[in-house]
């Protein structure tokens, strides 16, 4: 065999991706060789802790960490079996290093580092939001930079200008509640079951258009930042002053969802106009919202920009997006040293370029 750099050898072999930033344990195996046969996702496995945290109405960090300990290695074995591989076949390990819950992150990071050390392959700590941002690259028609990315999840609402992998500029951020957090908190105050966001979105389908109209926060002024805490308060007051019937609950849910979606749409249009980009990537858990996907796709068809979404199973936290982001960076020779480091808070703009 010719003398091939270690980074290139890693790119020729499958990469293991590990996601443990919050309450999903995700594992995936990916071979990232766009010009080679056998390229793409080989296997993935996911375990969600929804039932574990339901009684508490939210994620309990200590319970989340302990459940990752129980579930991670069995999921790794499951994914290897599905792909017909053994640990010796791996070319590298990628794990979520942040942002997220520190205990949960440490489970994935320590496991990933230990496996890489034992196998003699490189490891890379991946930024969770970079994983989301790159998830549409797993699809058949992937976006090519430059593009604008809307990253909306339980903990983040970001608009990012993407020139290349690792070349990111934050255009807008949340000043208080992220969009997904607003969904969950609003659902909880209206008595909907955990997890609240999906329950509220499902209920909104039964609501009557225009029965309730709430403000579109921070759209009456310049800028691309988000703020959803005031919207949550408006919904609380409307619910408290209503007859609290099931139809009213659905009507309020619809009014709330429309306000969130309209706000995100207005800000996306502004970001595209400010950057001149013609491609919009939407990723993160809220990116699975049906109404949001429909409205952004319709706006793109009208305004002349193209929208890109991951498939629904890769909108929420998963190992495939971490394997992908890690594989790209490992292929460019980037890897961690032997220490185990995690970053509960981590600025996306501080990431180095991939090449």
TrEMBL record:
Record field: catalytic activity: L-threonylcarbamoyladenylate + adenosine(37) in tRNA = N(6)-L-threonylcarbamoyladenosine(37) in tRNA + AMP + H(+)
Alphabetical GO biological process terms: tRNA threonylcarbamoyladenosine modification
Positions with a binding annotation for Fe cation: 128, 132, 317
Span of domain Gcp-like: 41-323
This protein's GO CC annotations: cytoplasm
Required co-factors: Fe(2+)
Subcellular location(s) of the protein: Cytoplasm
MF-aspect GO terms: iron ion binding; tRNA N(6)-L-threonylcarbamoyladenine synthase activity
Primary location: cytoplasm
Keywords: Acyltransferase, Cytoplasm, Iron, Metal-binding, Transferase, tRNA processing
EC number(s) from the headed UniProt entry: 2.3.1.234
Residues the record lists as binding substrate: 151-155, 184, 197, 289
Cofactor binding note from Swiss-Prot or TrEMBL: Binds 1 Fe(2+) ion per subunit.
Function as written in the Swiss-Prot or TrEMBL entry: Required for the formation of a threonylcarbamoyl group on adenosine at position 37 (t(6)A37) in tRNAs that read codons beginning with adenine. Is involved in the transfer of the threonylcarbamoyl moiety of threonylcarbamoyl-AMP (TC-AMP) to the N6 group of A37, together with TsaE and TsaB. TsaD likely plays a direct catalytic role in this reaction.
Family to which this protein belongs: Belongs to the KAE1 / TsaD family.
Protein name from the UniProt record: tRNA N6-adenosine threonylcarbamoyltransferase
Source organism of this protein record: Dyella choica
Species lineage: Bacteria, Pseudomonadati, Pseudomonadota, Gammaproteobacteria, Lysobacterales
Gene name as annotated: tsaD
């Amino acid at each position: 065999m010719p003398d091939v750099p270690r980074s290139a050898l890693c790119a020729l072999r499958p990469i293991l991706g590990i996601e443990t930033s919050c309450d999903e344990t995700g594992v995936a195996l990916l071979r990232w060789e766009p010009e080679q046969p056998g390229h793409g996702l080989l296997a993935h496995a996911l375990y969600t802790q929804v039932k574990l945290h339901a009684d508490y109405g939210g994620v309990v960090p200590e319970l989340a960490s302990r459940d990752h300990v129980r579930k991670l290695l069995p999921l790794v074995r499951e994914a290897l079996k599905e792909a017909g591989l053994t640990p010796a076949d791996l070319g590298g390990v990628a794990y979520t290093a942040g942002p997220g819950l520190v205990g949960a992150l440490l489970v994935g990071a320590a496991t990933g580092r230990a496996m890489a050390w034992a196998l003699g392959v490189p490891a890379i700590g991946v930024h969770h939001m970079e994983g989301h941002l790159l998830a549409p690259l797993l699809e058949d028609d992937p976006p090519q930079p430059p593009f604008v990315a809307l990253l909306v999840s339980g903990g983040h609402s970001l608009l990012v200008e993407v020139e290349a992998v690792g070349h990111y500029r934050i255009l807008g951020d949340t000043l208080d509640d992220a969009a997904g957090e607003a969904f969950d908190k609003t659902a909880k105050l209206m008595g909907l079951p955990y997890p609240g966001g999906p329950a509220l979105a499902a209920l909104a389908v039964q609501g009557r258009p225009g029965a309730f109209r709430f403000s579109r926060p921070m759209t009456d002024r310049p800028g691309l930042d988000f703020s959803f805490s005031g919207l949550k308060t408006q919904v609380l007051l409307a619910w408290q002053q209503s007859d609290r019937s099931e139809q009213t609950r659905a009507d309020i849910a619809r009014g709330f969802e429309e306000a969130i979606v309209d706000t995100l749409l207005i800000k996306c249009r502004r970001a595209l106009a400010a950057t001149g980009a013609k491609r919009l990537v939407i990723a993160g858990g809220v990116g699975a919202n049906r109404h949001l996907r429909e409205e952004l796709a319709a706006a793109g068809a009208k305004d002349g920009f193209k929208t890109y979404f991951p498939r629904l199973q890769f909108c929420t936290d998963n190992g495939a997006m971490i394997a992908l982001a890690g594989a790209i960076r490992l292929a460019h020779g980037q890897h961690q040293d032997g220490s185990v480091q995690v970053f509960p808070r981590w600025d996306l703009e501080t990431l180095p370029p991939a090449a």
